[in-house]
Amino acid sequence: MNYSGKQLSEIACVQRTSDRMVQECVVVPVPTSRFEGQKPGTSGLRKTVKVFQQKNYTENFVQSILSAMGSGLEGSTLVVGGDGRFFMTEATDIIIKMSAANKVSKLIVGKGGFLSTPAVSNIIRKYKADGGFILTASHNPGGPDADFGIKFNMSNGGPAPDAATNTMFENTKSIQSYNICPDLQCDFHSIGVYEYMVDGKPFTVQVIDPCADYIELMKSIFDFDQIKALVGGEGKLKVLINSLHGATGPYAEKIFLQELGCPPSSCIKTNVLPDFGGGHPDPNLTYAADLVEAMRSGVHGFGAAFDGDGDRNMILGQNAFFVTPCDSLAVLANNLEHIPYFKKSGVKGFARSMPTSAAVDRVAKKKGLECFDTPTGWKYFGNLLDAGRISICGEESFGTGSDHVREKDGIWAALAWLQILASKNTTVEELLKEHWTEFGRNFFTRYDYEGCESKPCEQMMKNLEAYISDPASIGKVYTALGKSYTVSAADNFSYIDPVDGSTASKQGIRIMFSDGSRLVFRLSGTGSSGATVRMYVDSYENSPDKLFGSAQEMLAPCVEVGLIISQLRELTGRQEPTVIT
Length: 581
Ligand code: G16
Prior knowledge:
Number of helices: 18
Radius of gyration: 24 Å
CATH topology of the largest domain: Alpha-D-Glucose-1,6-Bisphosphate, Chain A, domain 3
Strand content: 25-35%
Bound molecules: 1,6-di-O-phosphono-alpha-D-glucopyranose
Shape: globular
């Protein structure tokens, strides 16, 4: 990119002072005008690469983020890292040049601009940085014709809360210029410390190994020797780890192959590709179908897949026994004493996003711990984690994490499962079945209708809003596939943060039935265009003859009722979902 009319090769303002190379840089203010729609969604700004490539589009958003730091910007230390997707390198370069021009004092950058999302969170916390940029559109596809994203995490290592993202969005509306050091040169593909003088003030870029700090953290949480005894080498439990060509690849190779001694065939798709090999880096039954297929052969006792930026996980047992993310959270919560980190720190409480089933609530009740029900979005766990109210939290969208960082963490979740299996000498399926026998089972499914036209989806949500506001809806009876459901309550979920009192309203339409079943409707906040409808369906059973059946069969009548009430098929024209979880 050429902001000043100069080619980078022409720039000769590098000054050698004793053994250090210090480049002198000049700040250039560049006039710009606003772009519509730079509003961060559930987790950062996600748009197509082509949108980010527009002249000044990325710069405008980066400036709006930096300006939102207010007086905390000058002299700050920030972290930069992304998931390896297309346009990450260009965006990293822009952020370095703009941070220098905006009086940031130091940047810590993953080599090549690469870091998984949980690794960024860890580095912010470990090095007491003031925040960090994460360059990812997470589970969305990558490549020149797919998606890119920019998200900002705060000094606690967690995603910016609503108040901060609202300020960023307001800044995008009033922006008239941005600051950049167009001549600054940084070889962020090589580990090292790069020093600059910007308008007479020092600016440093420290390029680090993306994996080292994260691996050290995992080793401080888990007993690697115990996991190694379970999975390390021939004749042991076979694991299959699928990184879907996303950010976990290098971390998975180092942890599962080098540290835990798993055979090389245990880790697949670990080479990070800018387009994720043309796949959809979302660890669910549809987009990680290759893992499911491989697990069906029965050779492996444990399987896991992770998303583009490494924060999501899917866990499978032998013969592709699927653990829903809701159950995964509950089983981990019930077994934390097997993990050294929690043995030491103790277990505080739990939290889940509202659409997640209440399986973890039952564990909290048994243990006499607090359990919170938050809106969708990891940012809503931040205050609870910071206040020491919860130890682990999770979401139905394949997110599980703990207070070791402030992001969900895919590899952490896989290691947590393996630690528990090793410590209890059991299997994934046995552990689940024991759990259901003790607590009863929260059956759960999610239907996604991706890439719909926005207008009919908005109409559907409006209709549902009217439905829940109408007192006559309560008591209505619906019958589908031979089963009847009576509406017992309905609302649009609101949340008051118990730590700072901030509120989040209209977080999802809930329709509850007298038998304890529930429907939830939301529009996704992570798509880059159009609309994605999510319908979440759950019910609870504790009679022994119903515990081990198929969730899809068990929930089919309630799913049909959801489709009838929402008129989803009629309004969107979609007869089938794109993804069923
Ligand atoms: C993000 C958020 C999650 C959220 C998920 C789905 O995940 O961090 O908290 O559950 O989006 O959100 P939505 O239903 O609005 O699409 P990720 O992995 O995409 O960063």
